[in-house]
Amino acid sequence: MPSDMRAFVGAALVSLAAATSAAAQASPYLPLDDPRLPLLEHLIARGDVDDPSPMIRPFRIGDAVRVLSAADTAPGAPAAAVIHRLHESLAADLGSAEAWWGVEARVGGEAYTQKRRDPLHLGGPGAANPYGDLALRGVLGPIAGATRASLEPSLIGNPDWPNTAQENLTGRLIEGYLSLQFKYGSLTYGQLQRNWGPVGLPGIPLSDVSFERQGLELELGAKDVRLSALASDLRPETDSIGQSVNRYYFVHRLEARLSHRFRLALWESNLIQGVGRTFETPFANPLSPSVLANSFGIAGDAGSNVMIGIDATWRVGRRTTLQVQGALDDFWFNKRNQKQDRWAFTIAGYGALGEKLGWHARYTQVSSLALRTANPLENFTDQGVGIGRNFSDDDQLSAFLTIPAGHLGLLTPELTVQRQGEGKIDAPYPLPDANGNQITPMFLIGTVERTYRIALGVSGREGPFDIAANGGFHHVVNDQNEPGVTANRFVGRIKVTLDWRRHGPFR
Fold this sequence. Notes:
Elements: H1 3-17, H2 37-46, E1 56-57, H3 61-70, H4 80-91, E2 99-112, E3 127-140, E4 143-151, E5 171-182, E6 185-192, E7 195-196, E8 213-221, E9 225-233, E10 237-238, E11 244-257, E12 262-274, H5 281-284, H6 290-296, E13 304-317, E14 320-330, E15 342-353, E16 357-366, E17 381-382, E18 385-386, E19 394-405, E20 408-420, E21 449-462, E22 465-477, E23 486-505
Antiparallel strand pairs: 1-7, 2-3, 2-23, 3-4, 4-5, 5-6, 6-8, 8-9, 9-11, 10-11, 11-12, 12-13, 13-14, 14-15, 15-16, 16-19, 17-18, 19-20, 20-21, 21-22, 22-23
Helix pairs in contact: 3-4
């Protein structure tokens, strides 16, 4: 971490330390790959349980336990038995003392038909490998911490995994953070799986597509207003003349609850880069709009790329919710023949179906040139992998059912249609024609690949065993954007592990 960022972190910790006298009991975060999370998301989607942080993941285990405790579990209430079992399981992960420790180990294996975690964009050969991870978690009053490391041979050959040096065995740090938590917010530094956007898709400004991201995250707020901010240093890259270029990424989000049914949030993401560039506080400052700092403030327009966005969550009825996330990467008022607009958006809906089932539907689109620029050092990528979305020039329409099964399990049948143009997030930016006009289509460049998918997901915990699996049949037209090439294939992934855990109080 650069020295200026270390100073920034230190100053933030010192300034917030006094606030911890108002702290509630701290809690570790619920990892995005926890096999019980899909069942909790099912209950949230049905309206049986409140969402602790709409469109922001992860949330704390303590917050999950809190909303489950507040849910209607009266005899005869929908999902009462499922809520009770899930509450009992998650509560067991929290210590009862003010200071406690926990250790968890998982061993098992995984098998897959391709390496990439995204089933609609294939990458890497299929195989079967062992898997194991070890997690240490703890709480000391207002401070929660966790570290979790894994051994995952499946990472070797994954096109989204940045380390290409390993040949036989590799692993990663899935989470490693310290979080200072107080009554009206938290300050977290370290590595976490994060997703900012509707559940089930990579968020446009931030996701875990490129695996876990290091950073300093600030959350402040009460019931009606919430400020979230993340500052992260990206991996340096080399420019055309061999110089090392420093790159930093900042995301700010301000959310307001305008009624008991409607929430609206404005957000921005800003990537700055340059030889010798430092962690600059005008961009890290969550109360300083990057559009002003970038275009009208100290920086001019050199070496930075700003994307602005909006999130909305509307509870239409007790059992139906609509969510929208939209982003503008660029919109040109003048010289429109020389530039292309760049955008991305998601529309999602979910709710209850009968007494136990749930439904989800969503449509998402990313324009052909979104998330990249004429200067590849300003692309919204980290070592060529998306910071939020990982693919441009595509859209996707999906529908799901969610069906509780077993003790803490969930079945998820799925139907999806995807169109993928030839535009790629890491491809060179198209040059203008001889007259200086940009003639690249704004959506779906060239030959369009079409994928029709029918699939089933399985997730959950049964006793000491965890399972996460998804498999589907794909009918692909113009496979890999090759005209007239049709492919039919099965794409699947399964991970099964045996879980062991212990926790107790610090003495």
